[in-house]
# Entry
Amino acid sequence: MQYQFNYRPYKRRFIRPLHTNHGIWEIREGIIIHLKSVKGKIGTGEIAPISWFGSESMEQALNFCQQLPSEINQEVILSIPDTLPACQFGFESALEMVNGKQENSASSSFPLLQFSALLPAGREALTAWKPLWEQGYRTFKWKISVYPIAEEITILESLVKALPTGAKLRLDANGGLNYQEANLWLFTCDNLQATNVNHDFFEIEFIEQLLPVSEFDKMLELGDCYSTKIALDESVATFPQLETCYQNGWRDVFVIKPGIIGSPFRLRKFCQKYQIDAVFSSVFETDIGRNAALQLAHELSLSQRAVGFGVNHWFQKEALS
# Structure
């Protein structure tokens, strides 16, 4: 079957720059794609690459769209190479919609999913959690490895004291720590948890991507040395990476970003086969990519862990440019 194809690039500016170990991010760029069947059915998808996280670049994604004809078929979509994972996700999501396998649903269509809210790095987190708590969030994610480690550990201790009963906290290093710093963070978190044995007051749920992708074996080792859980993030950014880490023995938490991991079909098959502890997370996509990603989270989440899509407060409600 042939589909009419068109696309539209967009830019969205963060309300305030997002600071991570990878640097400062000010503008989210992406591409909205449309497929239309001969029967007039329309499917939309989103390509939202993050090159520094492991996907193709925006330029590569745009070049791919530009070289396609105005009519394409399923064979073209399913042959998109693994080097373009964000394109795989965007085109397959649109294909599923146009074929009636995915609904154009709002986030409210997944009432059983709980959401984790992203806090700003540094001391701003000490006040930023309060309005988010009032909005109903109970799980928070805080970026570390942005400021000096001694400063961040002091902030963590203050944050833990400030958070209300029942709060959960995730730390995300974005691969920015060395081995000694990773040990210190895990030791600190274990000690904080030790004073809270029943976890009624707060819980440090896990630390994401302590070390660079190249140091997988050391993260495996650290997972055996501490009680605080470790999650892989950048290490499993794309589907081939996810397969490799599982084959090499990772059985702790996998943070999956559907928007850049690649083929939804392959991801479904993998998760259903291996029943991994997966936490689905945003790539700061628009509602189009978000709803497709949440559909996967709804289908494939086995645990009661919150999904990492509490990021809308990082953008103004405005039309895409």
About this structure: The mean pLDDT is 93. The domain at 109-314 is CATH 3.20.20.120 (TIM Barrel).
